[in-house]
């Protein structure tokens, strides 16, 4: 972590963790990749280490992020996918060179193109988003129940009843709010 920058919220699903680099979209939005360097840091956490990142490449990344957010939100609501978002996702998917590598330990690793460009990493994220939005993976797109968040997340719980994008932040805040509301209703009670 670099001092002075907001922490990353790390989820298990690449594409929706990427959209989570802008959080609280309906409240006081927090930009978690405010500089090209922070995008480099974020990509490294997800096994997509790149050599460098320019401001223009950060813009490509943010455009992809907002397009995934828009398309995933529409998919969660079973609306028509916005054409402009689909275009950007497909463009980023096509612009990168990345290869899936099977390690001797039986894990998948991404090998970016020879220059390890940001575009290569973005193509992996775009492909991940496509697999989720296309319904190819076991899970369901849903929107976070926090009114200031409403982030699209991928619910892989068995019952498909997850309510929050992240238990530690949105889920916890909601629980605390409920706790305080109960305390106001029943002063003196512990819960
Ligand atoms: Zn949330």
From TrEMBL:
Signal peptide: none
Domain Zinc finger CGNR residues, every copy: 141-182
Domain of life: Bacteria
Pfam families, alphabetized: ABATE, zf-CGNR
UniProt name for this protein: Zinc finger CGNR domain-containing protein
Species name: Streptomyces longispororuber
Lineage: Bacteria, Bacillati, Actinomycetota, Actinomycetes, Kitasatosporales
């Amino acid at each position: 972590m670099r001092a002075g920058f907001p922490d990353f919220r790390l989820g298990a699903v690449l594409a929706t963790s990427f959209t989570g680099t802008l959080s609280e979209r309906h409240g006081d939005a927090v930009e978690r990749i405010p500089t090209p360097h922070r995008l480099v840091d974020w990509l490294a956490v997800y096994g997509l280490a790149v050599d460098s990142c320019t401001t223009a490449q950060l813009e490509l990344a943010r455009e992809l992020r907002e397009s995934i957010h828009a398309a995933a939100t529409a998919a969660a609501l079973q609306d028509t996918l916005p054409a402009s978002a689909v275009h950007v996702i497909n463009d980023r998917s096509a612009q990168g060179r990345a290869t899936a590598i099977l390690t001797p330990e039986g894990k998948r690793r991404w090998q970016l193109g020879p220059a390890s460009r940001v575009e290569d990493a973005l193509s992996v994220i775009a492909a991940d988003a496509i697999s989720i939005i296309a319904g190819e993976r076991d899970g369901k797109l849903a929107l976070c129940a926090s009114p200031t968040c409403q982030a699209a997340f991928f619910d892989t719980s068995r019952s498909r009843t997850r309510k929050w994008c992240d238990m530690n932040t949105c889920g916890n805040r909601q629980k605390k709010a409920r706790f305080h509301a109960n305390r106001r209703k029943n002063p003196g009670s512990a819960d």
